[in-house]
Amino acid sequence: MAENVTEVLTGAGVLAAALGFLVYASEGGGLSRATDSYDLTASFRSVEGVTVGTDVRLAGVKVGTVTSLALNPQTFFADATFTVANGVEIPDDSTAIIASEGLLGGAFLELQPGGSPLNLASGAEVENTQGAVSVIALMMKFAGGGDDTGAGTDAP
């Protein structure tokens, strides 16, 4: 009898923990949309490493989240929509860059503010963008030598 009570209490504890994790994930994982932010868009040649939920950072501080990615069939660029926290005003000549946390780190969307006195309104597009740089393409370029001058060849 005592064994059955222990099993029931253990099962209830596991169920409560699972429910707690589910609530935590739905709040922190972006399932509930924050109303204290505004949307911006940007178009990139490549968004390699960026997914929905990726951080948007300004000076290394998270100020928003990528909310959608879609291929534009006319330009063949990736259109990204992302949020920025209210109170963080982005000048209209700012740049959106797909940056990396290091050689093996993940990607994030970095905002580099411009110097314009005018700010982007909700729904506006960041015109200046820089897409993701492929680490493999850079390594192949470096490994290939890239010496087009002919210097160092054994030509007589």
TrEMBL record:
It comes from Albidovulum litorale. Residues 37-114 form the Mce/MlaD domain. InterPro entries: ABC_MlaD, Mce/MlaD, MlaD_Phospholipid_Transporter. This is Outer membrane lipid asymmetry maintenance protein MlaD. The lineage of its organism: Bacteria, Pseudomonadati, Pseudomonadota, Alphaproteobacteria, Rhodobacterales.
